[in-house]
Design goal:
The complex is a heterotrimer.
Chain A: H1 25-32, H2 56-65, H3 68-85, H4 122-158, H5 160-174, H6 178-187, H7 195-222, H8 224-231, H9 236-272, H10 284-292, H11 300-327
Helix pairs in contact in A: 1-9, 2-11, 3-4, 3-11, 4-5, 4-7, 4-9, 4-11, 5-7, 6-7, 7-9, 8-9, 9-10, 9-11, 10-11
Chain B: E1 15-28, E2 31-44, E3 48-52, H1 59-67, E4 75-84, E5 87-88, H2 94-100, E6 105-108, H3 112-115, H4 122-134, H5 138-151, H6 157-160, H7 170-182, E7 188-192, H8 200-217, E8 220-225, H9 228-234, E9 237-242, E10 245-251, H10 252-257, H11 262-269, H12 309-313, E11 319-322, E12 325-327, H13 332-337
Helix pairs in contact in B: 4-5, 7-8
Chain C: H1 2-30, H2 33-38, H3 45-54, H4 61-73, H5 86-121, H6 126-140, H7 143-157, H8 171-201, H9 204-211, H10 216-245, H11 248-253, H12 259-268, H13 272-300
Classes of the chains: A mainly alpha, B alpha/beta, C mainly alpha.
Amino acid sequence: MPEPSSAQDPAESVGNAGAGGTMDFAAEQAGSLTAPPPGEHLVPEGGTTTGKPRSLWSDAWHDLRRNPVFVVSALVIVFLVLISIWPKLIASGNPLACDINKSQDGPAPGHPFGFDLQGCDVYTRTVYGARASVTVGVCATAGAAILGSVLGGLAGFFGGWWDAVLSRISDVFFGIPIVLGGLVFLSVVTNTTVWPVIGFIVLLGWPQIARIARGAVMTAKQHDYVQAARALGAGNTRILLRHIAPNAVAPVIVVATIALGTYIALEATLSFLGVGLKPPTVSWGIDISTASTEIRDAPHMLLWPAGALSVTVLAFIMLGDAVRDALDPKLR
Amino acid sequence: MDTLTESPLVPRTDTLLDVRDLHVEFRTRDGIAKAVNGVSYAVARGETLAVLGESGSGKSVTVQAVMGILDSPPGFVTRGEILFRGENLLTMPADQRRKVRGAKMAMIFQDALSALNPVLTVGYQLGEMFVVHRGMSRRDARAMAVELMDRVRIPAARQRVGDYPHQFSGGMRQRIMIAMAMALEPDLIIADEPTTALDVTVQAQVMDLLAELRQEMGMGLILITHDLGVVADVADRIAVMYAGRIVETAPVHDIYRAPAHPYTKGLLESIPRLDRKGKELYAIRGLPPSLTDVPPGCAFNPRCPMARERCRTEVPPLYRVTAERGSACHYWEECVGDD
Amino acid sequence: MGRYVIRRLLQMVPVFIGSTLLIFVMVYALGDPVAALFGDRAPDPATAAQIRKDLYLDHPLWQQYVHYMAQIFQGNFGTAFDGQPVLTLMSTAWPLTIRLTIVAVVVEAVIGVVLGLFSGLRRGRTVDSGVLVLTLVVVSVPTFVSGYVLQYLFGVEWNLVNPSVSPAAPFSELLLPGIVLALVSLAYVTRLTRTSVVENHRADYVRTAIAKGLPRHRVVLRHLLRNSLIPVVTFIGTDIGALMGGAIVTERIFNIHGVGYQLYQGILRQNSPTVVGFVTILVIVFLIANLLVDLLYAVLDPRIRYA
């Protein structure tokens, strides 16, 4: 008898949904995406393909380059990464040099976005805010993806008690709303660097990736070519690395890309609640939090960091969405 | 030479369905696939027409166009007429055409498990026909459903009317499909490989049931199949399709006696026969063409053992072989005379 | 069926213990409740020791946890450090949050399903692409941004609603906060419905329904939508628990003194009994919602039967 928690079941993977952060969104991607075996698509009905068959990846790349959503979001991301490494490229000011006399002033020459409560230049702070967001997003995603795919992949491959234990552990993490967990965990941390925030996101983020990796590995394991490799005497390591990993990696990449966007939103949410990044670190979340009390008098203070944050998250989610569409021929 | 492309093969007064010069194409990302390229066939009341062909030959697409269940987009009827009881279905208002479906012409699908809605009871799905087309109450419709299930010999119909499709065996499910198609006693039934998905032992039972009910109600039947054995038993006439065209059409016995097209001949020779045991089985060489890239001339020419220069340039029309027989081969006379 | 429920209940036990223990450890081991009680003043060692003894804090952590859980299952959630029984806080906070959740669930279900069906039926057209991009945008704007922006627009700029919810919090005042809370899930329901509709639209049984000559609305509603809603309904069911726990930001923006607000205050003031008490109930709600969804699945999809 089938259990209701099949791959179709979205209910399984939404434990930390809606918690101000947007952790749940990537879970959707998992259901529809399991790596198809190479070259299994694009054969017209009743016909033979002419020309040389393209692999899943080169085929996906072929599609992506023509997809405006992908091109635009990729350009935005490249731009964000550049300014988070060298903010001076486009902002000459100092985000911490403020003049309290200019508090909440509107745009002025050289200060196109106006000034915030402390009289700091909103434009400069918006540009410098990218660094914290991108750092947290990239590091947390890398950490969660590595930890999650190794643990989830092994659980999917070996099954048994290791799988059962891992499933229960990820259930525990899914049972805790993520913003709530962040509040509890980070409210007692006094370190003001980005590392506690990254550590926390990795801690609560890996089970999601692990579930995807586990499912993808279990699907790949069933494929005939894996059975064939096993019949030919290939060992576990070889099967896992040569045959399964290349096919299981696509869904993980898609989910991780989307998760990157949601992690950035999560960092901002935690900073907004006062437990994430703390001054003097420049963060969009902190600036939005400060601006929120003055929204009636100076909406521009909220507009710019909020816009920058939303565009950043959107760019990563759209990138992941485009990659998912390209890798999943079923949904064309 | 006399050809048949435009006119029906045998002028008849009791013609039920008359498909004329039908063209269907699929517009996909990878180009336009011409699935049906000028198909004409007719079915009379009470007649059984078998349509034969490999997958991708356009045999299913043709009947989908007749039924009006073509996936559109990407599928489009680009030319032709479908006359049903004298009326052109393609120009009929959508709502009027809908009322023909199910009531006047019905379809039996290949895989009953996926063709029946998994979350509704079979009683509901059968009764729906009466609720929608006859305006019956739910209760009366359910009683009709039980009657129908009895009629297709499902044991304990009264108890099983509330069961779901997955609770039935493959053969029983296909009987329910048949019951659904027969529900409103339509004039025409289209059966798209109705036994392919079944166990061999059940195939004959289901086929017999279908033939029996057809006879009882005097319906016309289009039977799509690639099983030549079934065809010989139940069909009156055969149409063989290849790459979206009819390549041969004839009364069933003529075709078995002397095929007038090399493709038909190849099909017949590829059936294992007891009297030729020990000899190598014939196989048509090559693969069917891609529909996005049909070869010029006769579509079968790259695989044809008797192909010549003319076959590579000139599309053969459907030549009249006898009064009720046609072949789309430039050299059909050689083919018939071969045996 | 009965055996399935029992097995699921047993599976829930370790998850319940794990989740509550995790929070318990975070609250009691990482912070110092007694120090928090005294604020910036250094506590008198004797008094501090007495408080520790009263609060059962002088025992090893695992004993504290067992003691605490034993108390909870006797209905004793303890007293917040300000002297209010946690149960009193709950009796005012939960009704608010439940009402807010109801609004959010109705909003996400109704709007999400309608939009998803609409765009799924027009797959690949402009409407569909528009809805898809819109859902991505909605997901990308964090709740605390959309909350303030909508509050500003509706409450201040256009003066349509009261920007802050009154203590009684009738449904009419909870409409805007409910929408804000539901936004991300709404986008999710829309996409899930759309995907499901697109997949089922190509299903053979939909083709059968058309071949039966059913009117389009019947094909769409009785056959297509009925089947497409299975994953959507299960998602919404699970989302109920998540929405309750996720209302922290929304409740803060609109000044609703519900569960999220109490939790936020409790955490900032290191009010440990409040935090652990509320979280324990949340975890239970979440687990039960999940179980109910699993059982609902069988009702919606007769192919699934529990051994």
